Amino acid sequence: MQNLSIISRYLYAVAIAVFGLQYFIYGDFVPTLFPVPDTVPARIIWVIIIACVLIVAGVFIAGKLKSRLTATILGLFFLFLFLVLHIPKIVRSPHDAIAWTSAFEVLAMVGGAWILADTLPSVALGQRVQPNALDKIITTGPYLFAISLTVFGVQHFMYTENIVALIPGWVPGPILWSYLIGCIFFAVALSIFLKKKTRLAAVLLGTMFLSWVLLLHIPRVLANVQKQDEWTNAFVALAMSGISFTLAAALKEKNR
């Protein structure tokens, strides 16, 4: 599992760093992940600051430079975005499928960061209480990821037409695939909550997300190089793959 742990860390780290690079390329926030209101003062300064934070976080995680602390703080940062930016947007537009998807992609990023943090060695902090508090926080990572998967599963049944539109034309039975993938999300989430066969479920989920990157997102990016959303979606899928493989690598009991 050592190789899987390394690969998964890189997948997640690369995705986080690319989100930061997008800020410099487009000169603004990534709208799906960071729906920051236009009225925010000194917008470009915040764009640069957050871009640097994401790039540095990606580099630190990939290079294992204080990566446990970095992943923990990154999870807190994404949780802040989820609560302050995404939840209000869902409240304002409860029937907006994109708002739900974006919000729970960010919550999945929280879970992924804390799953990763939980796999890394603690930094010695003497007798201070802080490590215990952080340890309790990061153990919620798998459950936050499972909650996100549950929402994704529901969406595959509620917004089937939107999902089908994303499936390449050469894939037969797109509606069936939408339902099947929704069921897979439910099954993996249930596996995480019940702590049964979770390693196998996470490996299969990570493989599915990675196959989407290769077969679905890369062709879409190449066909729409100028579209920021296509790049974002591709690296969100890459991050989801990394999170899934990280979860699989973290589980040592054979019955999980």
Model description:
The protein has 256 residues and is mainly alpha-helical. The chain has one domain (2-250). The protein has helices at 2-26, 43-63, 67-92, 97-119, 130-138, 141-158, 160-166, 174-194, 198-223, 228-250. Helix 1 runs antiparallel to helix 2 and helix 6 (141-158) packs antiparallel against helix 8. The protein is globular. The model is unreliable at 124-130 (pLDDT under 50).
Task: Briefly say what this structure is.
This protein is 78% helix and 0% strand. It has 256 residues and is mostly helical. The chain has helices at residues 2-26, 43-63, 67-92, 97-119, 130-138, 141-158, 160-166, 174-194, 198-223, 228-250.
Q: Which spans of ≥5 residues are poorly predicted at pLDDT below 50? A: 124-130
Instruction: Report the count of strand segments.
Output: 0
Spatial separation of the terminal alpha carbons: 14 Å
Mean pLDDT: 89
What structural class results from the helix and strand content? mainly alpha
Tally of distinct domains: 1
Summarize the helix and strand pattern as letters.
HHHHHHHHHH
**What radius of gyration results from the CA coordinates?**
18 Å
Helical residues, percent: over 70%
Q: How many separate helices?
A: 10
Main sheet summary: none
Anisotropy-based shape: globular
Strand content: under 5%
